[in-house]
Each structure stands twice: as structure tokens, then as C-alpha cells.
Amino acid sequence: MQLSHEQVHQNWWAEGDTPVRTDSRVLYLVDGRSAMLEICRHCLKAQKYIYLANWGMTPLLELVRGKDHRRGPDGSPEQEELLAELRAEGLQEADIAFWQQNALSVRNVLAYARSKGVEVKVLLWKCSDVLSHYSPKEAHEQLTSAGVTCLLDDSAQGVLHHPIESLHQKLSVIDGQAAFVGGVDPLIEKEGEFDRWDLPDHPFTTPLRQTAKGATPHPWHDAHSLIEGPAASDVELNFRQRWNDVVTRHHLSEDLLVPEHPIAPPLKSQSLVQVARTIPEHTYKFITTQGIAQLYHHALNNIQRFVYLENQYFWLRAFYGIDIPFAGTESYEMQQNVQALIKALQRGAFASIILPDHPNVGRGFSDAGLMRIREGAPQANDEGRFEAFCLATSTQEGGRTHYRPIYVHAKVAVVDDLWSTVGSGNLNNRGMRDDTEINVATLDPTATRGLRLMLQGEHLGIVHTEELLALSRLLGQQHQSALEEARARNALRYLEETLGDPARALTLMHDAAWRNLNLYKQGQPLVGHLLPYLSAEEAQQQGLHFREEHGWVEEEEKKIS
Q1: What's an example of a GO molecular-function annotation for this chain (predicted)?
Q2: How far apart are CA 241 and CA 248, in angstroms?
Q3: Which of 35, 86, 145, 398 could form a disulfide with 224 if both were Cys (CB 3.0 to 4.6 A apart)?
């Protein structure tokens, strides 16, 4: 599908920061397994430098696990097949030996890169103890002991800042040729909960995600991206600006400054690509921008047929630590976004959004945002043209079925199968204005439609984990074996036949979600992961036990680890 002249020249983009690139491409990665596998492979291939900036990091987190790491004993056909794939990816024999002989943790991989003479710099948010989801001091010690240069960024602290402002970007840059941005931090939160590595089938329990106590953390759904070409240099620019700002402000050695490197060479591409940021006032000296808010404002106003959203939040008001929606100040950017959605629904478009049943905070804030849309576009609501979903997984043990919500952390928007964005920016005041964020946006029907098909296929349970990774690589024009490419093309063909019509795809999602709700009430296993997103009032009307801090899917007492 080619873009029309009108579509190309619509206003989709942010102004005043990085340019729109015509010579770059984006590979979308669904869930932590795919994202971390690609990041690990690129870090092992690095020859010059690796730059990482994250909201949080667990240096002992294993980036590659299970059969991705080892398919069989040394010399077995399965293991030799894996090694052949790594060679085809460009890994050298020393890299492959390291792969086979070591746990592929963040610290081990970065230490190995340093042993080859690769420069490695890591920038981590120095969060306050009150809001601590990880230990910046411990992460800093573990990384520096491995030879990594690590800085703790305190730029969000001070009386001029939003009370709970964070440095929320999740990015990697390798040799200036490839960059990653999205929702995935290489992180396991304190107490072993919320491990960002997860598989697309989101198993209820798995030894690949067990904590020290033998429990499996909540399933985690996310999205990330690999950027190649000159747009990767825009991600590097962001890292360089942030890093050098910290070095300069704290009067650290000039030897720590990151120099400007040549822009990545252009690639043949049918995509228009832009990296956009949210940088709040008073945080850094180099720029203040609300580029991500601009992206959403333009894209949502361009909706002709539909929009598909996934997000951790959907807030009209700012959250200050109290879960009372009317207590926060209004978010102007989110008011604009909601109004754009309402107008699109009034024009006859349709919209869907995936949200977590149990966000860490602000459940009522998201409920209020959804209610505003339903009140503003009642006909669309009555006709089923506006749908909200959540995700869950199930298992059977001891003669009964157990359920767990899947934490939705992805920040995704797809408009008309033309334009898409993935990044760290949430649909709330923080993603649009008050936190430091980074997204990539793509105007490309093939990449965008492929992203929607992968996500909806995963949630419906009609595409397997291995097919998703192969499909990502096919859509992103990455090398893979003939067998994997054939698998990807077969998966794509099936998804096109089943979900190619976005209106039919929404109907299938609706039907699956409400069938699963009936299965949930009957104590039966879920098919796929979709459930309707229910407010407190709606859950009670369905006879479900709703708790503000846990939603309605979570079992009140953990019956299974």
C-alpha cells in the first residue's frame, strides 16, 4: 500500500526539534523478549560505543533466556542452528563463545563490550527514595564495577519541577547505526516484581521469570522499536545532550563529554520517520519541547477511519498521589487528545484502547477519561464504535482456574493503518508535558499495519511467540533464515485474512473479550488474553469484586505462584 500525496502532506509531525527523515526505517518489537533479544545482539556486535538511558535498570537482569540463549547441548543440531543464526546476524566467533559460556545479563553483556574496547555509557534516573522502584546507587555500583561509565541523572529534582517528575526515557544507541526506543526498561522492580522480560503468550507461571522466592511476577505487555538510519542519530543526539548537560552542570571532567559522531548513513526506505521528545521546563538547558504531545494532537485530528491505542494510562487530569480524579489539575494536552477522539467518533470513525486493569496508580483517572469519551460520543458508544479492553492470563491447577491481569505498559498509537508511534510517553500529563520522554513516529502503511496485526493477533491468541518475532524481523527488513522468513510470511498472510479489515478486527476483539468474561465468571480458562475494561461501577453491575488498587481480575489472595 502506497501513501497518497494528500496523506504524505497532512500534518503528522512535531516541530522545533528533530527532523522528519525519509531515509530511515523502524522495526517494531512486541514485548520484552523480542526487544531485549535484539538489544543484546546489537550490543554484542558493537565496535565503537554503546549508550543507554533508562528510567531504571537491574544490571543482573538476563536479556536473553531459555531457548533464545541455548536450544540444546553443545554440538546438538538445535544449538548449531542457533549459532548459525548468530553468525548470520554478524556476531563474531568470540561473541558467540561469550554467548554460549555466560549468562546474558545486562552487566555481563556491557562488561564484555568493554573488554573489546567498546565505550559504554549508561545514564540512569536518580529517583528519590520515596518514589524508588529500583536502587540507583546499587545499579551504579554494579555497572561501574564492570567497567561501565555510569551517571545518575538528578535533572528532575528541585522546587521548579513537577512534584513527581521522572526521567522516563528508555533508549539504547549502538555505534550510531542503530537505536532503540520504547516502553521496555531492562528492569526488575524491587522484590522481584514487574520483570520487563516476558513472552507474547504471557504465561501465568514460568521458570524464565521466577523471583528469588520462586514466584512468577505479573505478566508484562510492552512495545519497543529498533531505528536504523539517520533517525538513529537523532536518538543519539538526545543521549548526548542529556549526558553532557549532566556532566557540565555537575562540573565533572571534560573527558566524560560525549562527542558528536557522524550521522548514520541513509537507507533506502518507504517510511517517513521522526523521533520526538517531551522535555519539561527547567529540566535541561538544551531544549524544552512537547514534541510527543504535538504528534498525538496532529495524528488524532487526522483520523479518517479508526485509531487503535495501547497505554498504561488515560488521564484527563494530573495525578499528585491521590486517586481522586477531580483532585488533579486539568491536563490541557490530554483534553485536546480526548476532544480529537470525540470528534473523530462523531464523524463515524471507530476507536479502541487497551489499558491495564490494575495500573500502579490512577485507575479512577483512566475511568474518568473513558467516561468523557462515552459522554461526548454517545452514538459511537451505543454502536460499539468505541471499545476499551484489558488483558489477563489464566491457568488451571488444583482443579480450578486461576487468573492474573497482564500489566499493559505499551505506549502505542495506530491511525488508519498509516501512522504509528511507539515510545515511553504515556497518555497523561506526565507523558505529554511533565516527564522526560522519547517516542518514534512512522508514516508507513506496511510497518503500521504490521504493528496493529501483531498486537491484535497476540491479544486474540491467534499468533504464536516464534511467529511474532519472525514477523517483526520480516516487516523491519531484517535478515533471517529462509525457514523463519517462510514462517513470518505465513503468519502475515493469516493475520491479513483474519484481521486485515480493522472494523472486523475490532468486532473479533469485542466478541473475544465478552466470551472471556463469561468464561471468567464460569471459572473456565481464557482464550487469548482479551477482557472488557470495566470501571468500578461496570464491574459491580457484572457481579464482580472490584478493588480500586487491584481492579477486578486479580484474585484477592494469591493461590498460586
Answers
A1: phospholipase D activity
A2: 10
A3: 35
DSSP 8-state class, residue 217: P
The 10s digit of each residue's pLDDT in 204-225 is 999 999 988 889 999 999 999 9
CA 421 to chain centroid: 10
The answer to whether 122 touches 143, Cβ cutoff 8 Å, is yes
Query: For residues 5 and 160, what is the distance between their CA atoms, to the nearest angstrom?
Result: 45
Q: Are 199 and 31 in contact (CB under 8 A)?
A: yes
User: Among 191, 171, 64, 60, which Cα is nearest to 125's?
Assistant: 171
Residue 217 near residue 32, CB atoms below 8 Å? no
Which helix (H) or strand (E) segment is 149 a member of? strand 149-153
Which residues of the chain carry a pLDDT beneath 50? 558-561
Q: What is the pLDDT of residue 548?
A: 79
- Where are the chain's structural domains? 23-271
3-state helix, strand, coil in the chain (%, to 5): 40, 20, 40
What is the three-class DSSP state of 52? strand
Q: Which letter does DSSP use for residue 190 in this model?
A: G
Amino acid at 202: H
Q: Which of 550, 205, 168, 240 is nearest to 394 (CA)?
A: 205
The reported pTM is 0.96
pLDDT of residue 558: 46
pLDDT of residue 561: 36
Grid-cell match 505478566, residue found? 219
In the chain, the amino acid numbered 430 is: R
